[in-house]
Amino acid sequence: MDWAYLYDGSWEGLLCAVFEAFASKRWPRVVLPGDNAQLAFSDQPVHIVTDPVKAERVERGIVRRMGSPAHNTLWTVFLSGDPDKSTLIYRYIRTGMNKGRGVYQALAHDDINAVDRICYHVSHEAHLLHGFTRFSLMENGVYYARITPKNSVLPLLMPFFADRYTDQPLLVYDASHDLAGVYDLHEWYLVETHGLRLPGLAEEETACRRLWKLFYNTIAIAQRENPKCRRTNMSKRYWGNMTELNSL
Amino acid sequence: MEQTIQDKLQILTDSAKYDVACTSSGVDRAGVKGKLGNALAAGICHSFSADGRCISLLKVLMTNSCVFDCHYCLNRRSNDHPRATFAPKELAELTIAFYRRNYIEGLFLSSGVLKSPDYTMEQMCETLRLLRDNFGFRGYIHAKTIPGATPELVARMGALADRVSVNLELPSEGSLRLLAPDKPKRNILRPMGQIRDRITGNREELALYRHAPSFAPAGQSTQMIIGATPDTDYQIVRLAESLYRKYELKRVFYSAFIPVAGSTLLPADQPVPLLREHRLYQADFLLRFYGFTAEEILSEQVPSLDPMLDPKCLWALRHLDLFPVEVNRADLETLLRVPGIGPTGARRIVTARGAGALRFEDLKKLRIVLRRAAYFITCSGRYHKGVRFDYDFIYRNLAADTRRQPAGLPFAPVPEQLTLFAPAAVPAALPAFGQGDM
Question: pTM here?
Answer without folding.
Answer: 0.90
